Amino acid sequence: MRVDIYRRAEAEGKFSHLAVPEGRPIPEEATNTDWKREVTGQDLDDARERWEEYGIHQPAAQMREKGYAITSLGDMTR
Questions:
Q1: Per-residue pLDDT tens digits for 4-20
Q2: Exposed, middle or buried by CB within 10 Å (0-12, 13-18, 19+), for 3?
């Protein structure tokens, strides 16, 4: 799956990530925060249970349910 990756700064120098299908806008419910584009057209395997580099669990399920996938609170990266 090709996705665009956005990131935002969180507390304690950590970051959360948001993945949306390539070329699609950030869904309205997620636009109220300060997301900055990090990668465009990243090819990631949506069959993986987790995208380690972004701290995103069950990306395919999240994409189906919400139209985007986001880092879980406990898995923010530095």
A1: 999 998 888 888 999 99
A2: buried
List the 15-21 sheet strands across, edge first. 36-43, 2-9, 15-21, 69-70
For the chain, the DSSP string reads: -EEEEEEEE-GGG-EEEEEEETTPPPPGGGTTS--EEEEEEEE--TTSSEEGGGTEESHHHHHHHHSSEE--GGG-B-
Each as own residue / partner, the long-range contacts of residues 28-33 (CB below 8 Å, 24 or more positions apart, any chain) are: 30/68, 30/70, 33/8
pTM across the whole model:
0.87
Strand partners, 69: 19
